[in-house]
Amino acid sequence: MGSDRTRFVSFSGIDGAGKSTQIDALRNRLEAAGLRVRILTFWDDVACFKGMRESAGHTLFRGDKGVGTPEMPINRRDKNVRSRTMTMVRWGLYFADAVSLRLAVRRALRSGDFLICDRYAWDELANLTLHWWITRMYVRLIASVVPRPDVSFVLDADPIQARSRKPEYPLDFLYRCRESYLTLSELVGRITVIPPGPVGEVEAQIVAQIAVPCPPE
Fold first, then answer.
1. Which of 129, 159, 200, 216 is most buried by a 10 A CB count?
2. Full domain range(s) for residue 107
3. Which residues pair with 38 in a beta bridge?
């Protein structure tokens, strides 16, 4: 880590993969080492037309709002709605988000020692039908627009276990998304897939990948 520039990593993966847990753990380690850390949350800090997108999922598709928990599961209908029309809409939205992400990362890298991105462009691209050749061309376009993190993590997860932690989307959709993330890792390149495992083991692999310094004594 011996560089004066701000370094940054991104975390991606299916809902319930444990991204928030690992982001919190990494932030704590970095701050304990005396580094200034900034978190960039994709939906809150990057996504465009959030109000329209939220109302579409609730009003047009009759999906639930909020965050699902094991005690209170919900049934969201937004990114899991697949149709040619929605694909065209997503291409426009995702390109706008890519431009917004480029600007947001540029601003965030002006200060601090470390930037952690909670989701990235890859999480949107995983919603697309990646076996279409035109979609693959679109993916390469988006990858050329967004800044490349020093490390892009995809936290792999068993869809059944992930849904038990965060019950929001149908299981078949989570299986499709998981395959999309693995396909993206090959298509885009420079994406580090962390296999499923206990929280501590996953954290150790992340720390090893970015060489987090030890806290001062």
1. 159
2. 7-210
3. 115
Rounded to 5 degrees, what are φ and ψ at 117? -100, 115
Asked whether residue 56 is assigned to any structural domain, the reply reads: yes
Residue 44 is assigned to a structural domain of this protein? yes
Angle at 33 between CA 30 and CA 34, to 5 degrees: 95
pTM of the model: 0.90
When pLDDT is cut at 50, 70 and 90, the band that residue 84 belongs to is confident
The whole-angstrom separation of Cα 9 and Cα 163 is: 25
The single residue listed with the structure tokens 């299916």 is 14
Which ranges in 7-132 belong to alpha helices (H)? 19-32, 50-55, 84-108, 121-125
Which CATH number do you get for residue 67? Answer: 3.40.50.300
Cα gap 71→176, rounded to integer Å:
25
2 within domain boundaries: no
Residues 108-151 have pLDDT tens digits of: 998 889 999 999 999 999 999 999 999 999 999 999 999 999 99
In what order do the strands lie in the sheet containing 37-41? 37-41, 114-118, 7-12, 151-155, 191-194
**Beta partners for 193?**
154
H-type helices in the chain, by residue range? 19-32, 50-55, 84-108, 121-125, 133-145, 159-165, 171-188, 199-210
Among 91, 200, 89, 190, smallest CA distance to 135 is for 91
